[in-house]
Prior knowledge:
It contains ten helices and seven strands. By secondary structure, it is of the alpha+beta class. It has helices spanning 12-33, 44-68, 75-97, 115-118, 121-124, 133-145, 186-193, 213-227, 259-278, 285-294, and strands spanning 150-155, 162-168, 171-176, 203-210, 238-243, 249-253, 298-301. A seven-stranded mixed beta sheet has the order 1-2-3-5-6-4-7.
Amino acid sequence: MSQDSNLNAIAWGEKAVIGASGxxxxxxxxxxxxxxxxxxxxxxxxxxxxYLTYIAYLIxxxxxxxxFTDSDGNKEKIRKNAFISGLVAPSLxxxxxxxxxxxxxxNPTTHIQQLxxxxxxxxxxxxxxxxxxxxDALDDDHSSKLNLAATFSRVRSTDAQVSRTTIVHGVKVxxxxxxxxxxxxxxxxxxxxxxxxxxxxxxxxxVGKTTSQHNAVNIAVNINSFIKNKRSLxxxxxxxxxxKNTNQYYISIGEINLKKDAKLIKQxxxxxxxxxxxGDKQVTETDRKIASSLLQGTVVFADDLLPSV
Length: 309
């Protein structure tokens, strides 16, 4: 091949294919990072949006390769530049729009401690009794006799699911349903696909879980007594969240919040618990147990508390 033939113009179609190849390289890397969505807990809508985003990467790579790569000159050099343009264009976009990684302390629900096994109610609860099926039944029975019925209830028009709140021994017990958790729109899902986390109320700071409402309420009572009237904690208090159609009861500080708010709750609670454990003042064994337990609390996606369908 002569030197002149190597300097012939490259067709825009060839540059488009090469640019798409560069974009495809980034897409493959993103799919590997997501395990090709084979073991993903993302919803179908979230996965679809991510695939559409990857297609956009390819289109962006094609456009940049066509319009920003010279058509004349050494063919091999033009081909290399077209490939690099197709690879760099979506990568540069991601670098511009994606914030620093701030989700390092958002943990899966598997990190939630099982309080019923680690802390015996007889040692931990001022309410006294161990949890047994009989006690749990009595607890529910007393709730109705003492007029501890639902303080409010609402029926969702979309799927007729009922979200109910009851007050047991001064502790809010919230039966949560999918509609209690704010869902992302298509545009917000798109932001998530490129690394921008939308501001949705679907995070919660969870201290632990148990399979007994009696245990959960006992623990929440102790925590509320522990953090009551602490100026640095404001009006924070423990509640019990019960995903409907499950046997799990989660003890959380605060309800479902924005990510920044849930993380702020975690920061305040961990700070106070650390001060109790490692400060100069002497503390009771009960307070020491509560503080140690609070330090193991974690921020999780509220969606993951619900049963999978």
